[in-house]
Amino acid sequence: MHLQDGREFEISTPDLISFGQTLFLARWTSQEGQGRPFRKGTGDPLSDLASPLLFPSNFNRLSEPDANSCSGCHNTPFVGAGGDRVSEVFVLGQRFDFLDFDHTDTIPTSAAEDELGSRRYCFGASSARSAPTSSGQWPVWGMKSSSRREG
User: How far is residue 40's CA from residue 32's CA, in Å, rounded to a whole number?
Assistant: First the structure.
């Protein structure tokens, strides 16, 4: 299922929308391109490139989507809309390679330590109050490094 580059300018709008819908509803496997073995959920490269996200590490509910299709999460109140609460609360966990709370892994944002080397726990790993913004800055309303509360 691939639209050749430039083809989107040659087909009708209804056909383009239909193609997009087909992609959105498709259920992908690793062999078909599902996953991102060398990227975090944010699109950034993994912190530990020696540990690509391949089976069995290609699905992790805490630090990446655990669906095989776009519609697996974007389905409330109808397919193509947002998701329900269960699919939105871990978005900030996507900054980790494979969040598993293994505190023996000391590479920041690889498994359990945040950008500043602080240990993350279940609630603190994906809390907006304990995660930097996409620009890498800590939110104004959040607490700074040593004064931050562990989650």
Answer: 19
For 4, counting Cβ atoms within 10 Å of its Cβ (0-12 exposed, 13-18 middle, 19+ buried), the class is: exposed
Cα–Cα distance list, 47 to 43, 57, 150 (Å): 12, 15, 22
Number of domains in the chain: 1
Range of the domain at 88: 35-151
Phi, psi of 94, rounded to the nearest 5 degrees: -70, -10
Cα atoms in the 13 Å half-sphere on the side-chain side of 26: 15
Cα 149 to Cα 143: distance, rounded to the nearest angstrom: 7
Q: Domain for residue 1, yes or no?
A: no
- To the question of pTM greater than 0.70 for the whole model, the response is no
Q: Is residue 7 part of a domain?
A: no
18 in a domain, yes or no?
no
> Is residue 46 situated within a structural domain?
yes
Over the stretch 82-138, which tens digit does the pLDDT of each residue have?
777 665 556 677 778 888 888 888 888 888 888 888 887 766 666 554 445 444 544
d(CA 134, CA 92): 9
